[in-house]
Design a protein that fits this description.
Blueprint: H1 9-21, E1 28-31, E2 44-47, E3 52-54, E4 67-68, H2 73-91, E5 150-159, E6 166-169, E7 175-183, E8 210-219, E9 226-229, E10 235-243, E11 257-259, E12 273-276, E13 281-285, E14 290-292
Helix pairs in contact: 1-2
Amino acid sequence: MADQQSLTLAQITALVKLAKRVEQFNNLLSGSGPPTTQGSEGDWYIDITTKELYGPRSASGWNLQAVELATSEKAESRRMQKVTDLLVNATQSQGPIGPQGPAGPAGADGATGATGATGATGATGPAGADGADGNDGADGADGADGAAATISIGTITTGAAGSNATVTNSGTSNAAVLDFSIPQGAAGSNGSDGAAGADGNDGADGAAATVSVGTITTAAAGASANVTNSGTSSAAVFNFTIPRGATGAAGSDAFVAVGTTAERPATPATGAIRFNTTENRFEGYNGNAWLNLSPANVDELGATV
């Protein structure tokens, strides 16, 4: 009798014959217990615990109707016949596959497997067409009123004749300080003498005043002529500043206003100079009275006329 963990000589002989006669015999596998997922199509399997033979394995799996490899000689003879039948059947050509049976009911969903690792980011697809413009949003609330701006005048400068007038802001946009530069006008030609005004009524005699000449200063050409009183209203001392005349092109003589005492202007400008034909001399107006500018002697210099 053979050991439960070993095969008899007859059993091994049957297996050798099996290997020679079965064309699809690939491998002979063994293990404890019936086969499950081991092997591939054409393999045979021996359960070494029960001494049972399974095979051959088809493409769909194992046929679990095994042949017992018994240990007694008599039982072995019977089992060898079954093995022979297996050999004969295994060598027969396989018949056509029958039609597929209807699908069984769907099994219950298995448990959700673990989340796989994130795959690599795919290439960016082409940009889609622009969508239609959305509706305009509602108008926002009005903002708070800003602080009132201020404007003030800064400096006013006289520019050279012929220059451009300018206005600059030396302040800020909210507190503007406007600085003006205004060019002086070009000197105009002398106007014609106006008609002599009618004589006014004689005023009451006033207290006798004295007028004397103080300093006479020659100023630069183009400067303004000036007469100042360094004395008092009743004892005037006139200081003259007379600008030097610019050298002009050769031409006719320059003239001052000429007329009689009666033809003096009704409201002469301070510093006005004229030739009085009644007195046959030059005279100048100091803002209060006409003064003798060409005295016959020293005592008459600066006297009121």
